[in-house]
Each structure stands twice: as structure tokens, then as C-alpha cells.
UniProtKB/TrEMBL annotation:
Classification via PANTHER family: GPI MANNOSYLTRANSFERASE 2 SUBUNIT PGA1
Pfam families: Pga1
Keywords assigned by UniProt, alphabetized: Membrane, Signal, Transmembrane, Transmembrane helix
Species of origin: Lophium mytilinum
Transmembrane segments: 197-218
Lineage, opening ranks: Eukaryota, Fungi, Dikarya, Ascomycota, Pezizomycotina
Domain of life: Eukaryota
GO BP field: GPI anchor biosynthetic process
Entry keyword annotation includes Membrane: yes
UniProt protein name: Protein PBN1
Listed GO CC annotations: endoplasmic reticulum membrane; mannosyltransferase complex
Gene Ontology molecular function terms on file: mannosyltransferase activity
Signal peptide annotation: 1-19
Length: 230
């Protein structure tokens, strides 16, 4: 187990190298009370990422080539829920290098979205186009109002290549992406980088002692008279 950890980190590093990554770093806002009335946040039908729940979402994002009306292509929205207020997080989007795409990631609090006409209309459009999976969720109790730290993730995705194929220019295929919510350790380091950082630290400390040992060994082999006298 101890030996597979560095290997896993290296594989993760290599995997990141052949894929592209775009990210946004933010601090979770304080919890707000969301009244349990309908329609509520759940009725937006957004895919949700949360530290205790789903942290990696494998999905495909629609893209468009940039146009005058949509210079950043297609917009999509996700809910970031049950965050820990005051903690730093990172959301990454990773996509294969074989599908050149530009991504823009933004996080907004609810108030800001609901008070900004461009954002709320974009969110409404996106939400409307998503098919409700289950119109009447089983037993949605009209419970108490709950308190959550939530943010909305707003993604723009635009195709970033050129093809002479008209069909392809008008309907570029969706891009396979991983959306990853990563809490920071001690607000300094993304948690998923923890093993890598640990490995590098162990390596650095280890090589310090190792070089000391090698030095002593060489010293003995060379039989250089020790500087101190008996
Ligand atoms: C919401 O976001 C806006 C714009 O980023 C900011 O000015 C405001 O203070 C935020 N409100 C809360 C409650 O965090
Ligand atoms: C254009 O791309 C589409 C989709 O990949 C393909 O089906 C079609 O054959 C291509 N057309 C030409 C002229 O290459």
C-alpha cells in the first residue's frame, strides 16, 4: 500500500498531462436558509456536486463555435451543495486533448444570480431544457427549512478548432468531461493533490538523509582520515 501511493500519484500526474484542465478556486459562502417550498432549488434539475456526495461527475458538455451572439459558446449550470462555509474549494473540468475546447468556469451565489438578469435568464433556459427525470419524486416531505452553503457553477464551453466540414462546424460533437469538486486541505492545497505533495515531501526528506548516508559511505570507502583527532 505504501508503495502503490507514489505510483498512483505519478499516474494521476501523467493522466492530467494528456488531458486539459480549467479550474476555478473559491471560498464557500456562509450557509443560507432555504425555505422548503416549491418550486425550490431541486426543481431546477441541475446536476449537483457536493463534498459528502458526488464529487466527480462524468458527463458530456455541449459546445458551439464562438459566434457574435454567443462568443463563449454554450452555457451550462451546476449546483454546488452542502459546502463547508469558509472553506476553499476548487472545481476542475478535465477534457481530452483530442477535443480542443475553451472552458470558462464561474461560481456565483444565489443572490447574485437572481439579481443579475443575464445570469438568471441563462439559468432558466438551461433548467428548462433539462428533462425532469422524475416529476413526482417519491415522498418529498414538506419538512423544515434547511440551512446550506450553496453556490451555482456556471460553465461556458466553446469549440476551439477549425474544420472545413460545414456539418461539423454547425454541430460540433459534445465534449466528454470530468467535473471535479475538490476541497482544499487546510485551505492551502487541493485534497486530491495531498498524496502527491506527501510523496514529494517524503522524497525530499528521504534524499536529504540518503545523500548524508552516501556521503558517509564514500567517506569511509575513500578512507580519508577523519579531521578530528583521537
Ligand atoms: C454574492 O456575490 C456578489 C458578487 O460576487 C457579492 O458582491 C455578494 O457579497 C455575495 N453575497 C453573499 C451573501 O455572499
Ligand atoms: C462531415 O462530418 C460529419 C460528421 O462527422 C460526417 O458524417 C460527414 O461525412 C462529413 N462530411 C464531409 C464532407 O467530410
Amino acid at each position: 500500500m505504501r508503495f502503490t501511493l507514489p505510483a498512483a500519484s505519478l499516474i494521476a500526474l501523467v493522466a492530467e498531462a494528456v488531458a486539459n484542465t480549467e479550474k476555478v478556486i473559491f471560498t464557500a459562502p456562509s450557509a443560507i436558509t432555504i425555505p422548503n417550498i416549491r418550486p425550490g432549488l431541486d426543481d431546477l434539475n441541475l446536476d449537483t456536486l457536493s463534498p459528502a456526495g458526488l464529487r466527480t461527475l462524468e458527463t458530456s458538455l455541449a459546445v458551439q463555435f464562438p459566434s457574435d451572439t454567443a462568443p463563449r459558446g454554450v452555457q451550462s449550470w451546476y449546483l454546488l451543495k452542502d459546502l463547508e462555509p469558509g472553506r476553499r474549494y476548487e472545481v476542475r473540468v478535465c477534457w481530452p486533448a483530442t477535443q480542443p475546447t475553451d472552458f470558462w468556469l464561474d461560481v456565483h451565489n444565489l443572490t447574485h444570480v437572481f439579481e443579475t438578469p443575464l445570469l438568471i435568464s441563462s439559468l432558466a433556459d438551461y433548467s428548462e431544457n433539462r428533462q425532469p427525470i422524475d416529476l413526482q419524486g417519491p415522498g418529498r416531505a414538506q419538512g423544515e427549512a434547511t440551512s446550506h452553503s450553496v453556490l451555482l457553477l456556471h460553465i461556458h464551453s466553446a469549440a476551439d478548432y477549425f474544420t472545413s466540414n460545414r456539418t461539423l462546424m454547425e454541430h460540433p460533437p459534445a465534449v466528454d468531461v470530468d467535473l471535479i469538486l475538490d476541497p482544499f486541505l487546510l485551505n492551502i492545497l487541493p485534497q486530491s493533490l495531498g498524496p502527491t505533495a506527501l510523496y514529494i515531501t517524503v522524497l525530499a526528506v528521504g534524499s536529504f538523509f540518503l545523500s548524508g548516508a552516501i556521503y558517509t559511505w564514500l567517506y569511509q570507502i575513500a578512507e580519508i582520515p577523519k579531521p578530528h583527532t583521537d
